[in-house]
Amino acid sequence: MKKVYAIEEYCLACHLCEYYCGFSHSGESSIVKAYKKGAPQARIQVEEGSEVNFALNCRHCDNPICVKSCITGALTRDEDGVIRVNQEKCVGCWTCVMSCPYGAVVRGHGDKSVALKCDLCTESGDTPACVQGCPNRALVFEDRGDAK
Amino acid sequence: MKYVIIGNSAAAVGCIEGIRKNDQSGEILLISDEKHATYSRPLISYWLKGKVVDKNMYYRPEDFYEKNGVKTMLGVKVTGLDAKKKTLTLSDGSKVDYENLLVGTGSRPFVPPIEGVNECKNAVTFLNWDSAIQLKSMINENSRVIVLGAGLIGLKVAEGLAGHVGTLTVVEMASHLMPSVLDDKGAAILEKHITKCGVNFIFGDSAAKAGTNELTLSSGKKLPFDVLVVAAGVRPNVELVKEAGGKVGRGIVTDDEMRTTLDGVYAAGDCVEAVDTVTGDRHIMALLPNAYMQGEAAGINMAGGKADTPKVMPMNAIGFFGLPLVSAGSYDGEEFVEEGEESYKKLVFRDNKLLGYILISDVDRAGIYTALIREKIDLKGVDIALLKKQPQLMLFGKSDRKRILAGGGIAQ
């Protein structure tokens, strides 16, 4: 399946992927409106190093330890291979945060303290917003075969 | 092939999903003494608090059994296991045959020998949904509640009751809360937070005598109560396997494939003892993720597949009154500690590996630490300063990092 991959040599650590991700999941019609209401949380995180930077989101593992560990059944690996969280079922116990070896599940802040994670922007049916918004092609959306 | 599963929680669901990876058509029969469809046990305290409503208690969608071709017998207890004839005797007197059996019988509350406790009508335990329903029916906003035990269950029941009762006192024999998970420093931070939320603690004391409305502690101190919740730990339900001649230690003994010593009988979840992947010791690690993974491995294996041995270890992801706590692994090694007003970080290293951690408050990306422990990663090529600062993938060297970013896992 197609997933988002980072190319660390190209990442500028501009964090635009995070902004586009937050906007894409905000439910607002424009990025201006979305950020007026306070920064919507991103499901992708940029790590900045002394020499390289990269962005990281869910790897959509074939054998997902987060899904197996979820105490409520809120996390599922669906037929399209995408791992999604049902926010109505999630209670924010953070077992998935404890389990994910990539550190790719984000803790939601504020009233809705539930798990947030990349859904590959499948609702829009388009190339994920982070990839579209990356100004230096440090994120690609492609099929590289299976992940563990 | 005919599969029979005893139990209806995480191990059972894992087993069903494991079987169906390899066998789409074999007959599966699930027998449980609880009448509910599969629900999440850890959610009962959230339900008690009112944070989770009935319809969100269920661990799998309504059509789960149907979709997976599972017949259920709910509200029926398995009373006997004949491992030679491969039959089960049920509480209604009927018999059931199996070819492969999963014992996912879980655990039951342990009630310490406190004088009068068995006769005390307002003493309850807290482990399944029905016990939560019972407790909810017994309380009102004036109730004086005593919880015996400041372990995971005791604290969770206290959180569930807070705001719904008059007074709430937790009595713990050890000198601090969560003695099996936390050290005294971590416990002190958590205690301060929970106390602010209206829970009183008495440490270093235990219940000696339970009267109708008065509890006498070992110290002689007397506490009035309306409801007494006994949360003093659990015991594994091993009897079926033991009486059938299967090997039982602390829990039901299983091999790497989750087989018991009885032919065609597998076991998973809170009733089994397993090898701790960190220490190599055998003990019971009664946690939902472990139960699911053991059940799934049993299911894959009994359906003719070859599952990886579940890598289980003590782990906890749990929060109290909004303060999250995550811990994993083992703690006998060199410590790195950072303490804040309401935060705590302890990392334990041994033989150039991360062995365990405790995080309170900032638990973001803790899974990277968990993976370092689970996969026993040699820290030779790892940036230890970055590791100590926070969990991040930048701590790996370039070639490892490239593999990891591509979704190739942490294991070297």
Question: What does this 3D model show about the protein?
Answer:
The complex is a heterodimer of chains A (148) and B (412). With 148 residues, chain A is an alpha+beta fold. Chain A folds into two domains: 1-57 and 123-148, Alpha-Beta Plaits (2-Layer Sandwich), CATH 3.30.70; 60-117, Alpha-Beta Plaits. Chain A contains five helices and eight strands, in the order E-H-H-E-E-H-E-E-H-E-E-H-E. In chain A, strands 1-8 form a two-stranded antiparallel sheet. A two-stranded antiparallel sheet of chain A has the order 2-3. Chain A has a two-stranded antiparallel sheet with strand order 4-5. In chain A, strand 4 (75-77) and strand 5 form a beta hairpin. With 412 residues, chain B is an alpha/beta fold. Chain B has three domains: 2-108 and 235-302, FAD/NAD(P)-binding domain, CATH 3.50.50; 123-232, FAD/NAD(P)-binding domain; 322-405, 2-Layer Sandwich (Enolase-like, domain 1), CATH 3.30.390. Chain B has eleven helices and 26 strands. Chain B has helices at residues 10-22, 44-49, 64-67, 129-138, 152-161, 184-196, 239-243, 288-302, 366-374, 384-389, 398-405; strands spanning 2-6, 27-32, 70-74, 78-82, 87-90, 95-97, 100-103, 107-109, 123-125, 144-148, 167-172, 200-203, 207-210, 214-217, 222-224, 227-230, 234-236, 252-253, 265-267, 272-275, 282-283, 315-320, 323-329, 334-339, 344-350, 353-360. In chain B, the strands form seven sheets. A five-stranded parallel beta sheet of chain B has the order 3-2-1-7-19. A five-stranded parallel beta sheet of chain B has the order 9-16-10-11-12, covered by helices on one side. A five-stranded antiparallel beta sheet of chain B has the order 22-23-26-25-24. In chain B, strand 22 (315-320) and strand 23 form a beta hairpin. In chain B, helix 1 runs parallel beside helix 8. Chain A binds chain B through residues 3, 5-6, 8, 47-49, 54, 56, 59-61, 65-66, 68-69, 71-73, 88-89, 91-103, 105-107, 113, 144, 147-148, and chain B through 14, 40, 42-43, 46, 51-52, 56, 58-60, 288-289, 292-293, 296, 315-319, 322, 324, 326, 328, 363-368, 370-371, 374-375, 391-394, 401-402, 404-410.
